[in-house]
Amino acid sequence: MEKKICYFEEPGKENTERVLELVRERADQLGIRNFVVASVSGETALRLSEMVEGNIVSVTHHAGFREKGQLELEAEARDALLERGVNVYAGSHALSGVGRGISNRFGGVTPVEIMAETLRMVSQGFKVCVEIAIMAADAGLIPVDEEVISIGGTAWGADTALVLTPAHMNSVFDLRIHEVIAMPRP
Ligand SMILES: Cc1cc2nc3c(=O)[nH]c(=O)nc-3n(C[C@H](O)[C@H](O)[C@H](O)COP(=O)(O)O)c2cc1C
Question: Which Gene3D superfamilies match (predicted)?
Answer without folding.
Answer: Pyruvate kinase, C-terminal domain (3.40.1380.20)
